[in-house]
Amino acid sequence: MNFWNLFEFDFLNAVQDHHSDMKIKVFKNFSYFFITVFLAGCATKNVEYSSTKQEGQWEAKAQIRNFKDNTTKTVNMDVMAIKDRALRMEVSATLGIQVASVLMKNKNITILVHPQKRALIGVADEKSLEAIIKTPINPQWLYGAFFDSALEGWDCEGDPVSICKSPNGEMIKWTDRDGEKKRITIECPQYTMQILVKNYQTKVQSPDKAFNLEIPETYKKFKIN
Question: What's the pTM?
Fold first, then answer.
């Protein structure tokens, strides 16, 4: 059986079920952590752009258009990262219900898919995020996208960087800049992903907690590569 067939049940559709007490408890537990973190670091003033930032946390909304099955999905993203070392991402549906937690450290990645109570463990590559967004986006690209930096082996232009092109035809563009607010567009033959960064904080709040993702005992574990 193909591994990805285990995840035919679309996670975004799953969160429409508001009648399961068990699911609500899981979402509340994972939402509490990031609500606490972002309230602690929340600020209304936009941060001036910096080309030398080495850490931070971003509040964003992403729209993913998949050309293969002609679908468009919108999710909220709370991202905390130390450049090229660690990245934590909480993904929620438009109603604000937490549906996935992602932790990437170096080349390893752990993904908790909350509606299905599954933990995916493996190497961070273009297959990693398919279980939650049905699109082969390499999570390593997110470092360059959020930190406004060139990806190794890509051809980049602008200061600050405005466009990067890979040898394989993928493209990342940065537009609509306002300090650290921006629009990031990732373009590939199979999909387009637009990330609208609405807020940025210069420091990761509680990094020990942010970059430690415990797998609940009730979650089934799967290797993804």
Answer: 0.81
